[in-house]
Amino acid sequence: MPGVKNNGVLTVKRINEDAYKKGKSEEQINFYLQQLMTFNPIQEKEGAYAS
C-alpha cells in the first residue's frame, strides 16, 4: 500500500470496552477487513513466481 508511512495516523481517540467489542464483531462480517487482516505480501510475491 503506497504512502502508508506518510501521514499514516491522523487521529487517535480513546474508546471504551463496548466500542472495542462492537468493532471486533463488525470485523468478522466485513469481507474487506477479513482480506486485509490475512494479506501477506511475501506469500503474494512467492505465488507470482510459482507458475
Describe the structure in your own words.
It is a single chain. The chain has a domain of 33 residues. The protein is mainly alpha-helical. The model has no long low-confidence stretch (mean pLDDT 76). The two termini are 24 Å apart. The chain is flat and about 40 Å long. Helices cover 59% and strands 0% of the residues.
Short description:
The protein has 51 residues and is mainly alpha-helical.
Write the layout of secondary structure elements.
Elements (H helix, E strand, L loop, with lengths): L16 H13 L1 H8 L2 H9 L2
Radius of gyration: 16 Å
- Overall, the morphology is flat
* Helicity level: 55-70%
Largest sheet: none
What is the residue-averaged pLDDT?
Answer: 76
Number of strands: 0
Order of helices and strands: HHH
SS content category? mainly alpha
Q: Which percent band covers the strand fraction?
A: under 5%
Low-confidence stretches: none
**What's the total helix number?**
3
- Our measurement of the CA-to-CA distance between the termini, rounded to an integer number of angstroms, reads 24 Å
